[in-house]
Design a protein that fits this description.
The protein is of the alpha/beta class. It folds into 3 domains: 58-192, Rossmann fold (3-Layer(aba) Sandwich), CATH 3.40.50.12160; 215-274 and 291-464, tm_1862 like domain (pyruvate-formate lyase- activating enzyme, Alpha-Beta Horseshoe), CATH 3.80.30.20; 474-564, Beta Barrel (OB fold (Dihydrolipoamide Acetyltransferase, E2P)). Helix content is 34%, strand content 19%. It has helices at residues 33-43, 67-82, 107-125, 127-133, 149-153, 155-159, 177-185, 233-237, 245-257, 308-318, 336-344, 361-367, 373-386, 405-418, 435-439, 446-469, 549-564; strands at residues 59-63, 97-102, 143-148, 167-169, 190-192, 215-219, 221-222, 241-242, 262-266, 274-275, 306-307, 323-327, 351-353, 391-398, 422-427, 475-483, 491-495, 501-505, 509-511, 514-519, 526-534, 539-547. Strands 1-2-3-4-5 form a 5-stranded parallel β-sheet, sandwiched between helices. The chain has a 5-stranded mixed β-barrel with strand order 16-17-18-22-21. The protein has a 3-stranded parallel β-sheet with strand order 6-9-12, sandwiched between helices. The protein starts with 32 loop residues before the first helix and ends with a helix.
């Protein structure tokens, strides 16, 4: 299951919240059809001839939820571009088509989507008066399209909501969007939420939303077979299927040509990747499919192909100057060969997201996670023994069905015992269709959930400070992503191999590839930074030199060899 449930909004600076608008009465006079048409034409926004609106209309998009949703929107934009919908605008008031890509993991995310849908309904329902007052610049009432997990989960409710939405399209049906939009022109509402056992969009070249970014997302698999009792993902995203390795390599090669220096490999259960596209024979169910020691799985593998370690091996060897990260994994799919590969390859980042969800074995059993507290801690110990300098992050849910104070305290002690660099902490939100919804009672009161969540946050903050402080005095390789927003004229910001945010002064420094040159680092440079201080969220340091991934790794190997002599 993908995590990092930060609500990502693309260009919302001009968008209004539901609480800040009041629909005005229609301002156009009630005259004859011809006169009304002429009046309306006179009210339409005057466009520069060089910026004529294409007949298909302009697209505005918003995305909520995980990185997978961001990548899905890039796939949608590519499909739409190939169908002739090429122009994207930065505000919904200027769009003839509005896409909202949704998240169904928690109720809070859904409520924010409903607020935005109310505003989009206002833009559509009161289009004439909005044009008359200058609020809207669209050439016709916008078509509102709901995409993603919420589309699959609440399709009937969305379509029944007072003509608020024109198209509802699930995660596996994006190729059908041009046809669904055409149906709206004929007075129909388009819907396709069918889940697929094959769709991976492997042949689609995504249209990157952040065109100048040196980082990018690449989806390698879709769906999830784990059926954790709290999770809606298998019901909104379907079963697991993986892209062929070759299609992933081609996409990464294109990104490298575009100047991308770091790729995040995505999947709902990314490390269960299984490219069986070249495998014709069936294998005995589950044979040779190694899991982390002490972990089990409800899902059985029918055809075993290339695994996640094979994919990482190929990518890291073919693109030695590109960094690779991945999310979101399941702890059960960390066999030893994957851990040893991560240790050996300098361009596979030493950050592992290891979702625990809870520290209680009894709650883990109710959650159907397939492991115990002890097995999880053993895996943490193994990871740190193989990759000594690894950073760990995790997800935790408090207030799951039946959780007692003792079970909650076991989660607090697990956080202290592991010492995470990052964590994503949530109060439980029951989802319909899940195993928990069918079999358990959401019996922990909301005020207790919130109190437990506050305790999780405080416990995490106490331990993460130690993780950040341990980096003081070290030299980290930082990929420059842009200026520090708080000091854009004087400081740069980037991420270290461990995913820590690092800030440093922008000043001329040596370039190790040209010893006679000093220059200011730019976005996309790898910079050696000596860490001098830390907070619980950032590292601060002194930039030493501009370098390359392989050069930095070679220098570390030489230093290690010298120390061992």
């Amino acid at each position: 299951m993908l995590h990092f449930h930060t609500h990502i909004r693309h260009r919302l600076a001009h968008a209004l919240s539901i609480s800040s608008w009041h629909p005005e009465p229609t301002l156009l006079p009630t005259l004859s059809a011809v006169t009304s048409s002429l009046k309306l034409h006179s009210l339409l926004p005057k466009l520069n001839p060089d910026t004529e609106v294409p007949p298909t209309g302009r697209i505005y998009h918003e995305t909520y939820g995980c990185q997978m949703n961001v990548n899905d929107m890039e796939i949608v934009l590519s499909i739409m571009k190939n169908a002739g919908y090429g122009e994207i605008v930065s505000v919904p008031e200027s769009a003839e088509i509005i896409f909202i890509n949704t998240c169904a993991i928690r109720d809070n995310a859904e409520q924010k989507v409903w607020q935005r849908l109310n505003y989009f309904w206002f833009l559509k329902r009161h289009w004439k008066s909005n044009v008359a007052t200058g609020r809207s610049q669209s050439m016709r009432p916008p078509k509102v399209v709901v995409l993603g997990c919420m589309a699959e989960r609440l399709k009937e409710k969305i379509l029944d909501s007072d003509k608020m939405v024109d198209v509802v399209c699930g995660p596996d049906a994006y190729r059908d969007l041009p046809r669904l939009l055409e149906e709206v022109d004929y007075g129909q509402r388009g819907i396709n939420t069918l889940l697929s056992l094959e769709e991976t969009y492997a042949d689609i070249n995504p249209v990157r939303i952040s065109k100048n970014s040196v980082t990018a997302f690449v989806s390698v698999m879709r769906g999830c077979n784990n059926m954790c009792s709290f999770c809606i993902v298998p019901f909104t995203r379907g079963r697991e299927r993986s892209r062929p390795v070759e299609s992933i390599v081609r996409e990464v090669a294109e990104l490298w040509k575009e100047g991308v220096k770091e790729v995040m490999l995505l999947g709902q259960n990314v490390n269960s990747y299984n490219d069986a596209s070249g495998i014709e024979r069936e294998v005995e169910s589950g044979s040779n499919w190694k899991l982390s020691e002490g972990f089990s799985s409800m899902a059985k593998v029918k055809n075993m192909g290339l695994r996640f370690s094979d994919l990482l091996d190929r990518l890291s060897s073919e693109f030695p100057e590109m960094r690779f990260r991945f999310t979101s994994p399941h702890p059960k799919d960390f066999p030893d060969d994957l851990l040893y590969l991560m240790r050996e390859r300098h361009n596979i980042c030493k950050l592992i997201h290891l979702p625990a969800q809870t520290g209680s074995s009894t709650v883990l059993e109710r959650m159907r996670r397939g492991y115990t507290r002890e097995a999880y801690l053993d895996l943490v110990q193994k990871i740190r023994s193989i990759i000594p300098d690894v950073a760990l992050s995790s997800d935790f849910i408090c207030g799951f069905c039946g959780e007692t104070e003792e079970e909650h305290s076991e989660t607090l002690t697990l956080i202290k015992a592991v010492g995470y660099d990052m964590a994503f902490l949530f109060a439980y939100s029951m989802r319909e269709k899940t195993h928990a919804h069918r079999n358990y009672v959401d019996d922990v009161p909301e005020e207790i959930k919130q109190r437990r969540l506050a305790e999780l946050i405080e416990t995490f903050r106490e331990s993460t400070g130690q993780c950040f402080d341990s980096q003081i005095g070290t030299t980290q390789l930082v990929l420059v992503e842009g200026p520090n927003k708080r000091a854009p004229d004087t400081e740069l910001m980037g991420k270290s191999d461990k995913g820590h945010r690092v800030l440093f002064v922008n000043m001329p420094i040596p370039d190790r590839e040209d010893i006679n040159t000093k220059r200011n680092p730019v976005v996309g440079d790898y910079v050696e930074v000596h860490i001098t201080r830390s907070t619980r969220a950032s590292l601060f340091g002194e930039a030493l030199a501009i370098t390359k991934l392989t050069s930095f790794d070679n220098n570390l190997d030489k230093e290690a060899a010298a120390c061992s002599m």
